[in-house]
TrEMBL record:
SUPFAM superfamilies assigned: NAD(P)-binding Rossmann-fold domains
PANTHER family to which the protein is assigned, alphabetical: PHOSPHATIDYLINOSITOL-GLYCAN BIOSYNTHESIS CLASS F PROTEIN (PTHR43157:SF31), PHOSPHATIDYLINOSITOL-GLYCAN BIOSYNTHESIS CLASS F PROTEIN-RELATED (PTHR43157)
Start and end residues of each stretch annotated as Disordered: 297-320
The protein's name in its UniProt record: NAD(P)-dependent dehydrogenase (Short-subunit alcohol dehydrogenase family)
Extent of Basic and acidic residues compositional bias: 299-308
GO molecular function: oxidoreductase activity
Species this protein is from: Pedococcus badiiscoriae
A Pfam family hit: adh_short
Length: 320
């Protein structure tokens, strides 16, 4: 399909939260949503960088501190949000640090940031999301999810740490979460829509970040200019995510349609067999609730009686 962000409808009166919105694809997402009328909350680790980014956006914005590697920061951020929230874009991430790093909570950095942080954030924002008439959660995955394996449920343990595989596991976790959230919302009769998307291979600050691949000086110095010769930048990378956030069908996974899904027009993206495994998704969901200490309550304040077609709730979804 030849979808472009210019096709986004008027978003006036809605509120969107974009994590990692101070630079790269996240900034383009935030700017585009604001240009179409949404009030956008930029959820960022660095408040100064977030404010500088907001100053470059023509539209209604707010900036809030959020460090997804810290469960305390996630809890504090969610407590500051006064709903309703119409759209949550789980965008921020860390990519392939050369050596294994752990967070203050004791989890591997990529697993903590890319998956557990967004899992807990979505759960804690559910009351605000369910206060909106048509809430949507869009989670950013990657073609790298094909490199993940079924040890995704182990949270990237110290034994045999491999930056590429560990990153792939977290992107697989993103997809398992997004698709399981869709299944559970559907089972609960909830108005919540869950979608996923990947940007292809785009040249962004993620490549040069010192938290990830950019920890090696040669990568952060030479990779971005070389990649710009052949790959799209943040504008192109943001298209599939913006489509998933505003127009895609519930439960869909979108991405570029060119060779290798590196670039191209937006369309359905390819899922690995593991990403489509509902049993693995349920295992990861249960483990994620245990590790974060944050249970999901998809029913909302009115309870299950407010939904038609009742089926088992989040802790016991129907098997498929």
């Amino acid at each position: 399909m030849a979808w472009k962000p210019t096709e986004i409808t008027d978003l006036s009166g809605t509120t969107a939260i974009v994590t990692g919105a101070n630079s790269g694809i996240g900034f383009v997402e935030a700017r585009t949503l604001a240009e179409h009328g949404a009030h956008v909350i930029l959820a960022v680790r660095n408040l100064d960088a977030g404010r500088a980014a907001a100053a470059r956006i023509a539209g209604s914005t707010a900036v809030e501190t959020l460090d997804l590697a810290s469960q305390e920061s996630v809890r504090e951020f969610a407590a500051r949000i006064d709903g309703p929230v119409d759209l949550l874009v789980n965008n921020a991430g860390v990519m392939a640090p050369p050596t294994r790093r752990t967070t203050a909570d004791g989890y591997e950095l990529q697993f903590a940031t890319n998956h557990l942080g967004h899992f807990a954030l979505t759960a804690r924002l559910l009351p605000a999301l369910l206060a909106a008439p048509s809430p949507r959660v869009t989670t950013v995955a990657s073609v790298a999810h094909h490199q993940g394996d079924d040890r995704v449920v182990d949270g990237n343990p110290p034994e045999g740490y491999d930056p590429r595989v560990s990153y792939g596991r977290t992107k697989l976790a993103n997809l398992l979460f997004a698709l399981e959230l869709h299944r559970r919302a559907t089972a609960a009769g909830s108005p919540l829509t869950s979608t996923a998307a990947h940007p292809g291979v785009a040249v962004t600050n993620l490549v040069a970040s010192r938290d990830g691949m950019g920890a090696r000086w040669i990568v952060r110095t030479f990779a971005p200019p070389l990649m710009r010769l052949v790959l799209p930048g943040s504008e192109g990378g943001a298209e599939a995510i913006l489509y998933a956030a505003t127009a895609a069908a519930a439960g869909s996974y979108s991405g570029p349609q060119g060779p290798g899904e590196v670039r191209g027009k937006v369309g359905p993206a390819k899922l690995s067999s593991l990403a489509s495994d509902p049993d693995l998704a349920r295992r990861l969901w249960t483990i994620s609730e245990e590790l974060t200490g944050v249970p999901f309550d998809i029913w909302g304040k009115d309870g299950p009686e407010s939904h038609s077609g009742r089926t088992p709730g989040l802790t016991d979804p129907p098997r498929s």
